[in-house]
Records
---
Amino acid sequence: MSPDRRTLLRAGLGVTAAFASGAHMNTPIHANPNDGPRLKGELSHDGTVRAAAADDFGRIVHKPPRAVLRPAESEDIATLMRWAAERGLKVAARGQGHSTYGRALTDGVVVDMREFNRIGDVKADRIVVEAGATWQSVLDATLARGLTPPVLTNYLGLSVGGTIAIGGIGGMSSRHGMQADHVFELSAVTGDGRELTCSATENSDLFDAIRAGLGQCGIITRASLRLVRAPERVRRYQLFYRDLASLTTDQRRALAAKRFDQLQGAILPDGSGGWRYQLEGAIFYNGDTAPDESTALADLADDRGKAVIADLSYREDALAFAKFENLLRSKGQWSIPQPWLFTFLRGSNAEQMAREIMGGLSNADVGPFGRITWYPMQTEAFRAPLVRLPDESVVFPFNVIRIPSDTDAASTARMVAANRALYDRVRKAGGMLYPVSAFAMSPDDWREHFGPRWPLLRDARRRYDPHNLLTPGYNLFQGQA
Ligand SMILES: Cc1cc2nc3c(=O)[nH]c(=O)nc-3n(C[C@H](O)[C@H](O)[C@H](O)COP(=O)(O)OP(=O)(O)OC[C@H]3O[C@@H](n4cnc5c(N)ncnc54)[C@H](O)[C@@H]3O)c2cc1C
């Protein structure tokens, strides 16, 4: 990063200030013998670098790019975009590569954002970060000042740009919506090679099309993120139920009465063909005095003898997924095909849908370490226009986290096909996709998915990516793939 950019970021200035010069607009593009524009960063054609960008966490789609850009500054991305447009090459940003179906892959140029990860100064209500920063590094910086982003994903090894591009859901979403709802301002390089700042009041059409817009209009380079006071401690309760009905009844009661600060849950394989039903609630507190849990736990129908209760610092709790990651890594289960499916069911028919779908799922469909995420969530805090949820006040994430024992290509293909069939059932019943799922979508599918919001995305795409370059992995627009 140039000294000027570093100074501006450290000063915690708004994204606008960081782009005040506008000098990049005149950067000449020179083809050179190595097939690339003139850049401060590196456009690599190296086979190892390209191979590392040819797969993602899902390990289902494989597509080597022609080159990988490691930008030193956002001007590099703008220059690359104009150079790619002249050659008809597609461009996709890659954050931490945790997509599951090739959404950050392209046979054109991948922009590797991992080192575009500077963290600015923490202000009382915000922080400016580069989009390749992970949520863990953001949290570490903000906790030093007793602050936190209002919504953290369950896994913090994801990039800020990668989750804002899809929404970013976590344990606090019921209260605070998605990460995309807590952005003051974004800087982005659009598909026509412009560097623009956008917010609710400046280039608001781009702001609306970039948050949860699946990378179709621009590559996010910098984000000004909202911060709130972090609780010091978390008491976490895992409560186990005999069946789906009793779990769901208690989850709904807990949600309605706001008994927990975080409410999630899961249906877990029991290893002998059956399922375990788990409510996961967390209460935040400060100081040494533990929270009064009598109200939160009153009259719940769980098997209290099996309850697991943990008392953790807020940071330990936020990083708890890392233990699961380590477990999967130690069992060789992290780097296998992961055909995951993420959906939202309507609150009004969620139990019926879940019962019907569960009737056709076996333990083998998710594997011993897999699970089905299942909990009710209030939708009132969700505002980013391209986040699609069923139009009801309560919806249920229903996510089939498949970490299968059978990892041969035929089994994976069967699971991808099963995801498609499940999605069709969910959609017919008024449910929605969370677009990080492992199966192919056609442009018609996407038009139906975005429904009344489709014109917003389509028109922004025409304005900001007229050459149809960006993020082909979703197959959102005709001729994109
Ligand atoms: C173990 C695991 C846990 C997860 N937990 C959660 C969770 O709790 N909550 C949740 O919401 N999701 C979760 N996900 C899904 C995850 O949020 C998405 O897959 C996310 O897109 C991954 O972020 P990434 O940085 O790895 O992005 P990548 O996979 O690198 O990219 C994802 C998409 O965003 C685009 N993109 C990346 N960076 C930018 C940028 N700077 N500007 C514009 N577009 C960009 C890419 O082109 C691609 O289309 C999880 C996934 C895994 C594998």
Note: The pocket of flavin-adenine dinucleotide is lined by residues 56-57, 92-99, 103-104, 113, 131, 153-155, 158-159, 161-163, 165-170, 215, 219-220, 436, 471, 473 (CB under 6 Å).
---
Amino acid sequence: MITGSPRTLKEFHRKLDDWVEMNALSGEGTLEFAICRADGGGLIGDISLRITNVEAGQAEIGFSLHPGRQGKGYALEAASAFLEFGFGALKLHRIFGRCDARNAGSWKLMERLGMRREAHFREHALFKGEWDEEYYYAILNREWQARTGEQPPQELKTALNGWETGPL
Ligand SMILES: CC(C)(COP(=O)(O)OP(=O)(O)OC[C@H]1O[C@@H](n2cnc3c(N)ncnc32)[C@H](O)[C@@H]1OP(=O)(O)O)[C@@H](O)C(=O)NCCC(=O)NCCS
């Protein structure tokens, strides 16, 4: 099993109510944002930052895109803007992500973001009767700054400009 099972419409509505509450930060907790295309077309995914330790500036990133919108670079653009927000406005120290080792979509995205693979937990748990394998990835604030000090691609620059003046 690579990710959880798809939610039913009823489960999704319940989850949506929770997510709407997650639009403000007060210490440890989760910020959940919608991913929408700048040219309209509605919701295409969601992205979150779970602040796990305020004092040490630690947070976990999570993301998912509608299957029909994957493979187009949208997750990379959204996650890059979100890392910039986390390290810039929130002044976080380290952002990490976890995924099933078989979830290539997820770990390849974290590598594209410049996150380092910090751990591979082998057969560390049972999930639906099968051994689970998990990767941990992370990036430090100074590693992100060094990376974005290089020339970011044009579409990423556009996304970051949007965040500076946009919904945050
Ligand atoms: C994880 C997830 C969000 C990654 O989405 P994605 O669309 O693959 O990621 P990106 O936005 O970085 O897109 C990269 C892909 O788009 C392609 N692409 C096309 N146009 C592009 C562009 N202009 N810029 C960048 N990439 C582009 C890339 O070649 C790459 O394809 P490849 O992986 O076949 O080489 C997605 O797989 C997903 O929603 N999975 C289900 C939920 C999930 O598992 N979440 C994580 C739980 S731990």
Note: The beta strands are 29-36, 43-53, 58-65, 94-100, 116-127, 130-140.
